[in-house]
């Protein structure tokens, strides 16, 4: 089976924060799981290097947009590598290949009658002497009355046009812009209303509820054609006569990245890439809830317009994560920056917290108290404790070798069921429940260790002791395998101690008499003083 997984492309206009990772991490878990099942997986993403946020930052810093994009693209690559994201290809939207492929797609859409010219009202700033594209305008959302940008409201996720906003202001100078007429190119999204409605009806059992509700709202209102040209100095040049001085709307540019990077991966690896974009492939798109309409409506319409009748099979669209009970705000520096925490904390501790507390169905909160308690209580107190106490016992009483024993039938059945049930949950994007089920089992084996009292039976009934420890070791190696998609670094470490190279999603049988390798503490205890230090740092910053 072919599995295509696309992770949203973060804007290369600033550092990543934990909210970004909370939305993107499910893609890596799903990719690792399917690889362990032996499926043909292509997991792609990249940096969104175009758009007004980059232009605005470049202007503020008095550098070029290219310099901003280059800086943060490199930072993103470093962060994703440190967090053990297993992308098959991580690209960027300002690459020559992407630009050429996108321009070819735009020409095809135009030739197929899905792009047309239209005279429209536009916002113009007399002070800045320029037309203002979406993100150069801020105002009040007409739907929910929150402060919003000219392309989308982050509060209610409504896609907007700058003219929709009330109390409009130029982002660059703060003046109120005027309305002028001009020609722009439009994508005929309305022509795909019926196709996209059918896609939604076929996806109700597979998309997250927020994706279903958000998409249905737009369809019920009736889809409107979208302007795809922008009066900007930075972006992909439109390849159509008379529009050479305009740039492509950044969201058209970005979502097409999944397609263009797949092709690039195929070329560089001499692999067939098109089967990942066939009806026989299963496609996942992983992102935050603010990106839903671009993936559920605009992207499949673009693909349909060039002859690829592909609909996202799974939309894994996360809600938001707050910080210490308040909304993350990059402008106010109220954020936990990824490039800081990956140098200070165990990466698997970060991955565990963001999965176990993932915003799958509702907004969740990151607090330093909860993070440190999670590390000390779950990773160290449950998982790490089971591994350490068992391996220490083996080293002390069995010459560091796996003792002979037989697996308890009930334990074996439970683990076999875990592979099946956890697998189903991962496939459905229900990662929170999946990792919770694994840790419930870990706690049950710690209880089994306590109830079997091997520290007593090692002197009174050695065979019983051997069986107990063998069963604990059997559980550890399988729990480690089950956790590999979630916590790859610690899983590989434990497998190394067991000299276990098995990575398939199936029961691992434990061979007796194998020597356990030199082992160490799996997770370090975090001092609770860090809570006050990190919160104080937030307030200070």
UniProtKB/TrEMBL annotation:
Residues 3-391 form the Methionyl/Leucyl tRNA synthetase domain. ATP binds at residue 330. CDD domains: Anticodon_Ia_Met, MetRS_core. Binds 1 zinc ion per subunit. Transmembrane segments: none annotated. GO terms for biological process: methionyl-tRNA aminoacylation. Keywords: Aminoacyl-tRNA synthetase, ATP-binding, Cytoplasm, Ligase, Metal-binding, Nucleotide-binding, Protein biosynthesis, Zinc. It comes from the Bacteria. It holds the Pfam family tRNA-synt_1g. HAMAP family: Met_tRNA_synth_type1 (MF_00098). This is Methionine--tRNA ligase. The gene is metG.
């Amino acid at each position: 089976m072919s599995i295509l997984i696309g992770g949203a492309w973060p804007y290369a206009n600033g550092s990543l924060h934990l909210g970004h990772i909370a939305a993107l991490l499910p893609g890596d878990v799903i990719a690792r799981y399917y690889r362990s099942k032996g499926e043909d997986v292509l997991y792609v993403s990249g940096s969104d290097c175009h758009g007004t946020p980059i232009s605005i930052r470049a202007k503020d810093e008095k550098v070029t947009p290219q310099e901003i994009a280059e800086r943060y693209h490199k930072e993103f690559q470093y962060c994703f590598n440190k967090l053990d994201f297993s992308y098959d290809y991580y690209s960027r939207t300002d690459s020559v290949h992407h630009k050429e492929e996108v321009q070819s797609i735009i020409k095809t859409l135009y030739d197929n009658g899905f792009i047309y010219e239209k005279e429209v009202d536009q916002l113009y700033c007399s002070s800045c002497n320029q037309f203002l594209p979406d993100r150069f305008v801020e105002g009040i959302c007409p739907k929910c009355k929150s402060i919003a940008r000219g392309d989308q409201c982050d509060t209610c996720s409504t896609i907007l046009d700058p003219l929709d906003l009330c109390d409009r202001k130029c982002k660059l100078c703060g003046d109120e812009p005027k309305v002028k007429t001009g020609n722009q190119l439009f994508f005929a999204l309305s022509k795909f209303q019926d196709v996209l409605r059918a896609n939604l009806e076929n996806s109700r059992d597979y998309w997250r509820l927020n994706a279903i509700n958000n998409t249905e709202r737009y369809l019920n209102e009736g889809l409107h054609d979208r302007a795809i040209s922008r009066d900007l100095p930075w972006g992909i040049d439109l390849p159509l006569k008379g529009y050479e001085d305009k740039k492509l709307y950044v969201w058209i540019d970005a979502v097409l990245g999944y397609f263009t990077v797949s092709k690039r991966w195929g070329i560089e690896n001499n692999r067939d890439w098109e089967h990942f974009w066939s009806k026989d492939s299963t496609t996942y798109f992983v992102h935050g809830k603010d990106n839903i309409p671009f993936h559920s409506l605009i992207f499949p319409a673009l693909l349909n317009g060039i002859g690829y009748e592909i609909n996202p099979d799974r939309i894994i669209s996360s809600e938001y994560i707050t910080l210490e009970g308040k909304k993350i705000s990059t402008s106010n520096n109220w954020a936990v920056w990824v490039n800081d925490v990956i140098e200070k904390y165990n990466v698997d501790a970060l991955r565990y917290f963001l999965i176990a507390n993932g915003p799958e169905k509702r907004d969740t909160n990151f607090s330093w108290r909860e993070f440190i308690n999670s590390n000390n209580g779950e990773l160290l107190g449950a998982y790490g404790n089971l591994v350490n106490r068992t391996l220490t016992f083996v080293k002390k009483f069995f010459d560091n070798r796996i003792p002979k024993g037989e697996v308890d039938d009930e334990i074996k059945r439970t683990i076999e069921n875990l592979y099946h049930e956890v697998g189903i949950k991962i496939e459905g994007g229900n990662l929170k429940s999946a990792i919770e089920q694994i840790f419930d089992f870990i706690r049950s084996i710690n209880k089994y260790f306590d109830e079997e009292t091997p520290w007593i039976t090692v002197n009174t009934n050695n065979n019983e002791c051997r069986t107990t420890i063998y069963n604990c070791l059997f559980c550890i190696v399988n729990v480690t395998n089950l956790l590999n998609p979630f916590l790859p670094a610690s899983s590989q470490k434990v497998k190394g101690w067991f000299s276990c190279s098995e990575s398939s999603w199936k029961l691992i049988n434990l061979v007796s008499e194998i020597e356990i390798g030199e082992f160490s503490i799996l997770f370090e205890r975090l001092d609770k003083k860090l809570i006050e230090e990190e919160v104080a740092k937030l307030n200070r910053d």
